[in-house]
Design brief:
With 322 residues, the chain is α+β, with helices and mostly antiparallel strands. The chain is 37% helix and 26% strand. The strands form three sheets. Strands 1, 2, 8, 9, 10 and 11 form a six-stranded antiparallel beta sheet that branches. A six-stranded mixed beta sheet has the order 7-6-3-4-5-12, covered by helices on one side. Strands 13-14 form a two-stranded antiparallel sheet. The longest helix is centred in the last third of the chain and has 22 residues. The chain is elongated, with a radius of gyration of 22 Å.
Length: 322
Amino acid sequence: MSDHLKKYLFEGNTVRAEVVAIRDTWQEIQARHDYPPAVQKLLGELVAAAALLAANIKFNGTVVLQLQGDGPIGLIVVECHADLGMRATVKIREGYEVPEDGTLQTLLSPGGNGRFSVVLDPQDRHAGQQPYQGIVAMQGDTVAQVLEHYMATSEQLQTRMWLAADANCTAGLLLQKLPDQGGHSVARGTDEAATAGAPDADKEADLADTWDRAQHLAETIKPEELLTVTPDTIIRRLYWQETMTAFEPLPVQYRCTCSREKVASVLLRLGQAEVDDIIEEQGRVEVKCDYCVKAFEFDPVDVAELFATESTALRHQSDARH
């Protein structure tokens, strides 16, 4: 399995570790775009981070991570479903140069207006239910630091991340101090977390020692190790003296959810007058997916049928109400 994520629990269920290595999926994401090296690195790190966070969501839905700013990069988006199917894209502003030595802050937030957001979008929403969204300032010099800041301020979870990406692979290590009480968070709700009870007072020191020791050892990991060594080997090298529980690997895969039906819904929301104006000007409507760059084309006949069907459906709904 070339693309997979593995979870581990330290003895006492006090600290969670995850390691992910993504190769084929990462190649699929890059194959549809030609990103400069500095952009490639940032996107790759966010892809690994999305998998690490999505592996712990407690609902059937999608985690969306977004870096948005006022620099050459306008937006980086990674979507990752609970089953670790994922897609990603970057929007680079026209007319901007992307220097090879560009950093997170210089590429996304040179004016200090960068924002990081997490959207939790359940697949089967209840009536009136909206996706949860958390937004924080883009604080930190790396993707890992931005996410750690978000988890500490918005989710109240002590979390550490080590991320690495190159043209061939993106990978990451996550450590998380498990909460001793219930509460909503991106990482709450896994089977193993549910087994973690509130620690006794005399065990609090041991919990703190485990967390400090886990972080200290993880600080020795090198980016090239993350990119070339298997998750089990990384954990064995770092924590060979620890008693840990390892869980079955979870596959990561590329999946774009675009469809002609979704594009049709977008056109209906635009309204017939605006879509007809596009038809008159261009002779057709073409919408290209930002993620997989697949193009969906609607000619005048397609558009006429689309709005005729919508009009008929609305009329039937009105008749049913009366």
